[in-house]
Amino acid sequence: MPIQYTGIIQEHNAVRHSAGLFDVSHMGEFIIAGDEAEVFLDYVTINDVVSIQPWQAQYSAMCYEDGGIIDDLLIYRYPDHFMLVVNASNKEKDLDWFMAHKLDNVDILDISDQTGLIALQGPKSRSILQNIFDINLNEIDFYWFDVAKINGNSATIARTGYTGELGFEIYADHDNIVKIWDAIMKAGGDAVEPTGLGCRDTLRMEMKYCLYGNDIDASTNPIEAGLGWITKLDKDNFIGKEALVDAKANITRKLICIEMIDRGIPRKGYTIVNNGAVVGEVTSGTQSPSLNQGIGLAYVAKGFAKTGTKLKMKVRDKLLNCKVVKSPFYKEITVNN
């Protein structure tokens, strides 16, 4: 995926107000099948896999025994198997982890090389796609999916995304995904723009969606990262459970939303300061195209994580005023429409 096509701000605004088409075929996909597939996935991920119904998707994560995050991922449950979608940079690491914990009656297949993935995101995405797919997209709820046909070829179409807007992610083999891209661009006309990695980052930051390698990694746990809602500590044993129970009882820092008061742009690695003492560090930051101000995600000591808390950020040799705000930064979203 290129950083940009016409420009990050223009592409960002297209997604917020119309539609943007992303090529995210670099992501990794695995098929998990077999009689013990559900038991296996429930053990290696932190969310409740048993609760997923056929044709439903789930956001989850995998943790090491110490609670550190291996990766965050999507799980799609088909009637006879699961499909996992993982971060591109973690494909080999994730596969090694799966194989190390595989049960006898589980089959694992890496389909990354033959699978294409594109995402149409934005308030006009459904009306555009309805012109080219043979199913009623109004019947696909948020985090559900179906199999549809376009020009006689099958594709998985899911009501998922990474932007906060109404949107769909489409999986098909590489040859067909190119044809689907062309069909979407033709059907969308002036209402759709090709969109790149740059605006994908600004869009997800405005929503406080975590990026692996920045906001979450092996040194962070889901509790402090604000992912407690996908961490099902009441389910049967899973990898990292004991450490995460302890993390919840003894939380020392939290991932929060920082908004600049002074003019400035937060960047990864900038320190957060209170009365001369470092109390946190920025993990992601940008100039928000929607809000026209500097925003960032940062881990801060829990005593400074309350909404409204005023702090300072060290930007080069200056201390700039900032404050903790409620997530998400951008609230006029259409994801639930």
Name the descriptors.
337 residues; alpha+beta; Gyrase A, domain 2; six-stranded mixed beta sheet; six-stranded antiparallel beta barrel; 7 helices; 17 strands; 20% helix; 33% strand; aminomethyltransferase activity; EC 2.1.2.10; GcvT
Describe this structure in words.
GO terms for molecular function: aminomethyltransferase activity; transaminase activity. It is an enzyme of class 2 (transferase). The chain is an alpha+beta fold and 337 residues long. The chain has a domain at 19-191: Gyrase A, domain 2. The chain has helices spanning 8-17, 37-44, 91-101, 125-130, 174-188, 197-206, 241-249, and strands at residues 20-23, 28-33, 56-63, 69-77, 82-86, 107-110, 115-121, 145-150, 153-158, 167-173, 193-195, 253-260, 271-274, 277-288, 293-301, 310-315, 318-325. A hairpin with a 5-residue loop joins β3 (56-63) and β4. The longest helix has 15 residues, at 174-188. The protein starts with 7 loop residues before the first helix and ends in a 12-residue tail after the last strand.
